[in-house]
Amino acid sequence: MGVVSATIPSATTAWIAALAGVGFIWRSLTHPQPIVDFSALKIRNFGLGSLFSFVSGISIFATIYLTPLFLAGALRGFSALQIGLAVFSTGLFPGLCDSSLHLSRPAHRSALAHDVWVLAASH
């Protein structure tokens, strides 16, 4: 048995997904018992938090998935090690900044030191 290849072009799939998304939102806003109740988005803090979470998710997807594909493609031709080093730097700084917020306690400092040691030993 062979592998079935996809015959639908990407643009067609994108249009179908966009129309389905618009239809889903329209139905959720007009139906008396919607699948997803969007009325919670009227609360300013919840709506902004949801928007920022969505944007953060897109940026994480682009960094973790699309950047290695771009770097490995014919355009750049990076090796797996070069791609790993490029993507590694995107997670190192935010991780250290988040950890530095909790460094006032000795237990947190020792945990951070352990994490940095494990990270250094893994390379």
Describe this structure in words.
- By secondary structure, the protein is an all-alpha fold.
- It has a domain at 15-78.
- Helix content is 71%, strand content 0%.
- α2 (44-72) packs antiparallel against α3 (80-100).
- The protein starts with 9 loop residues before the first helix and ends with a helix.
Question: Care to count the β-strands?
Answer: 0
Number of helices: 4
Estimated share of beta-strand residues: under 5%
Which sequence of SSEs, written as H and E, runs from N to C?
HHHH
Structure summarized in a few sentences:
With 123 residues, the protein is mainly alpha-helical. The chain is built from 4 helices and no strands. It has a domain at 15-78.
